[in-house]
Known about the structure:
Layout: H1 3-18, H2 24-33, H3 40-49, E1 53-55, E2 58-60, H4 71-79, E3 82-85, E4 90-94, H5 100-110, E5 115-120, E6 124-129, H6 132-147
Antiparallel strand pairs: 1-2, 3-4, 4-6, 5-6
Helix pairs in contact: 2-3, 4-5, 4-6
Amino acid sequence: MTADRRKRHLKILELISTRAIRTQEELAEVLAAGGWEVTQSSVSRDITALRLVKADGAYRRPPRGSSPTDPDQRRIAEGVLTVETAGEALLVLHTPPGEANRVAVALDRLAWPDIVGTIAGDDTIFLAVKDAAAQRRVLREVGRLVAG
Length: 148
């Protein structure tokens, strides 16, 4: 996936989490107003790739399987939109706007031994880990929570 497409997917996830987007055309218009060059067909492919569903007439992320019972794990499962590696000892997590701090606090409270520290902005978390093996373990665990 290209960096532009990944950024567009993040923007789409942000948009559907902050407002009711009811049609592909509406989503294309909102993206275009934000400076994205999209067509209805590219938006359709994005919706398919993100596995969005319609609930109450608006696009939403698909419902997850069983939700974790631990509130911190649930915060991570519900708050993380994407996770990417950066180098061998860093993960970058994206959240909806305003959620990064809450997710980072949840990660800190879980006190996973592979995590050295977190830095949270508005919608991005930098997660430092001990080494490349720790990065793979944390990536797998966050991915498991996010996938449900």
